[in-house]
Amino acid sequence: MKNKTKKEPKPGFIRTFRDNLRVLGIIRKEFPGFLGISALRSLWECAIPYVLAYFSAQIVNELAGAQDPDRLKWLVLLALTVTAACGFLQALSGAIISWKYESVAWNLYSYIPYRKFLTLDYADVDNNEVRDLAERIYGNLNWNGWGIGMTFGRFIDLIRHLFRIAGALLLSVTFFTLRVPEGSRLAWLNNPWILSGLLLLMCAVTFLSPVFHNIADGYWARQAAASRKGNNSFGYFFFTLLQKVYAADFRIYRLDRMAAANYKPEDPQSAFGYRGSIARLARGPMGIFHGVGALFAVIFTGLAYALVCLKAWAGAYPVGSIAQYVAAITGLSQGINGLVSAYGLLRTNATFLTPLFELLDREETMYKGSLTTEKRADRDFELEFRDVSSTYPSSDTYALRPVSPNFKSGARLALDDTN
User: Fold this and answer.
1) Crossing angle for the helix pair 321-352 and 285-313, nearest 10 degrees?
2) pLDDT, tens digit, for every residue of 102-122?
3) Element (H or E) spanning 217, and its range?
4) Nearest 5°: phi and psi at 399?
5) Crossing angle, helix 128-142 and helix 104-119, to 10 degrees?
6) d(CA 342, CA 152)
7) Alpha helices (H) in 222-352, listed in sequence order
8) Collapsed DSSP state (helix, strand, coil) of residue 392
9) Distance of CA 223 to CAs 220, 272, 327, 350, 356, Å?
10) Dihedral over alpha carbons 196, 201, 203, 207 (to 10 degrees)
11) What angle, rounded to 10 degrees, do the helices at 285-313 and 192-221 form?
């Protein structure tokens, strides 16, 4: 029988941004400045290819035109200077991240949930519900990085793609303003309706590519439950096998057979086998949708080259500008594509943030006050508890009835009773 994963409705626009923005707020509070410096690094990273494309176009146009040595010299020096400056700022931002936020990448995944555990009472930490939340949080992380890490990664992607779109628009302004000579056979490219129609077609192709990729990623995300089970088995059996102290137990109880049974690649019930659910999806709808998305990306690239080269052939601009406009239009496409893809992943990720928020929103019952004590130089204190009772989680039976012990500091007291 095939395992069927229940399909949950995807979060809407408001919930997608609300939940992911909440995670970004937590990151900003715990690691001040980290998001800002990461965004600046993305800015310089996106600027470098556009700078190179612009100055390359200017140099080629000069070589194909007036061939002025002085202008060529200044263009080359300016290109090297601006590129080096952007590269230096990018490296500096990366160095600051490595120096000041060296452990943030790990802390993003572990620090925030662990810190919440420190505010919970011992009984709450030992609660099966809390343990299940922790298992789901780290299980989702091990499965394609869903959760906190996905929010941060896609936030950086959003910033990077916004910068990419801004740079592309800046470089492509003259592409739309420069006109084909009226006597040319391609003068119809000056018609605003035809040009707008071509641009709308290119935008539609650009938009469809990430849409199909997001549909495919939805199949991938819905396998999270099966992947958590597989990762748990792997973590238990194979990491335990590396510890010599358990070698005798494995031989006596033949746990090696149980471990091998969980990793039969031909088993259809195995999440990671070549007959498993993920492999079947990869050979079926998930692979098809990824293929269609890649097809639309290739179609857009062809349309971009065709349109840019046609205007250059008609004499709208020098041949060197082809590199500039192709870089700008493909950069614009990549930016739009990336925005749609990042939103799709953030939308899927909002579902995986649910266990994290359930953990963070749990009531903190641990006492946070201060105990007033008499200040004595000899530290000879006497401690007294009055009417102390205790029950195990999810139980109404008292494990400890009201007791009122007292003892001096430094002494040890044990409560012994029938288990």
Assistant:
1) 160
2) 666 556 667 778 788 878 877
3) helix 192-221
4) -85, -25
5) 170
6) 11
7) 224-233, 239-241, 247-253, 255-261, 277-283, 285-313, 321-352
8) coil
9) 6, 11, 38, 16, 19
10) 160
11) 160
Give the burial class of 222: count Cβ atoms within 10 A of its Cβ; 0-12 exposed, 13-18 middle, 19 or more buried: middle
Return d(Cα 112, Cα 101) in angstroms, integer: 15
Residue tagged 């469809």 (tokens) = 208
User: Distance of CA 373 to CAs 127, 380, 387, 410, Å?
Assistant: 32, 11, 19, 15
In eight-state DSSP terms, residue 138 is H
In the structure encoding, which two tokens stand for residue 167, read together?
Answer: 């740079």
What residue type is assigned to position 10 of the chain? K
In whole angstroms, give the CA distance from residue 25 to residue 360.
Answer: 13
pTM: 0.71
Q: Phi first, then psi: give them for residue 398, nearest 5 degrees.
A: -75, 125
Alpha carbon dihedral 391, 397, 401, 407, in 10-degree steps, equals -30
Q: How many other C-beta atoms are found inside a 10 Å radius of the C-beta of residue 77?
A: 10
156: its two tokens: 């950086």
Token readout for 174 is: 């003259």
Those residues with Cβ within 8 angstroms of residue 296's Cβ, 6 or more apart along the chain or in another chain: 205, 206, 208, 209, 212
The CA dihedral of 111, 113, 119, 123, to the nearest 10 degrees, is: -130
Give phi and psi for 29, each to the nearest 5.
Answer: -70, -40
State the sign of the Cα–Cα–Cα–Cα dihedral 60, 64, 65, 70: positive
212 to each of 11, 172, 217, 279, how far by Cα in Å?
A: 18, 27, 9, 19
Residue 400: beta bridge partners? 390
Q: Cα–Cα distance between 177 and 172 in angstroms, integer?
A: 9
Backbone dihedral angles phi then psi of residue 383, each to the nearest 5 degrees: -100, 140
* Series of mean pLDDT values for 10-residue runs along the chain (419 residues): 52 87 88 86 89 87 82 89 91 83 64 80 79 82 79 89 89 82 81 81 82 81 69 66 75 72 64 73 85 85 84 83 85 86 88 88 69 60 79 76 79 70
